[in-house]
Write a structure and sequence with these properties.
There is one protein chain. The protein contains 4 helices and 2 strands. By secondary structure, it is mainly alpha-helical. A two-stranded antiparallel ribbon has the order 1-2. It comes from Pseudonocardia spirodelae. This is 2,3,4,5-tetrahydropyridine-2,6-dicarboxylate N-succinyltransferase. Keywords: Membrane, Transmembrane, Transmembrane helix.
């Protein structure tokens, strides 16, 4: 991949990260009847490792490239969760919010570590 195509793809990946944060926050406090169903946690467990993997293998194969989606995710959760649109708080003090933060942090750090190991070994993670 040439350097000319990396920048637009990197920006697109970061925009996708922010949009996924918005969806995660919206679906985190979902209830089906009286039962809480934290769907945002499922979204973050699936999407964050994919974002880190794609960023580290396809777009920018450096430690900073692997960390970019994770940093944008944390920043997005803080900004959108605590300073939501119209003064709304999308990340209230509930167990569902703590579950989202814990799952996102754990999955993000694990996938970042795997990306760093792949970069250190010289493997790019692509299927040949």
């Amino acid at each position: 991949m040439t350097d000319v195509t990396r920048l637009p793809l990197a920006l697109l990946l970061l925009v996708v990260s922010v949009l996924l944060v918005a969806f995660e926050l919206m679906f985190q406090l979902l209830y089906i009847g009286p039962v809480p169903v934290p769907l945002g946690t499922l979204i973050v467990v699936v999407s964050l490792p994919w974002l880190v993997h794609v960023s580290a293998t396809e777009i920018l194969p450096t430690p900073a490239g692997a960390a970019a989606p994770l940093a944008v995710w944390f920043l997005g959760v803080l900004v959108l969760g605590l300073l939501g649109p119209g003064g709304d708080v999308l990340l209230p003090v509930t167990w569902q919010s703590m579950l989202l933060l814990a799952a996102g942090a754990a999955v993000g750090v694990i996938s970042f570590r795997r990306a760093l190991d792949r970069l250190a070994d010289g493997r790019d993670g692509r299927l040949s």
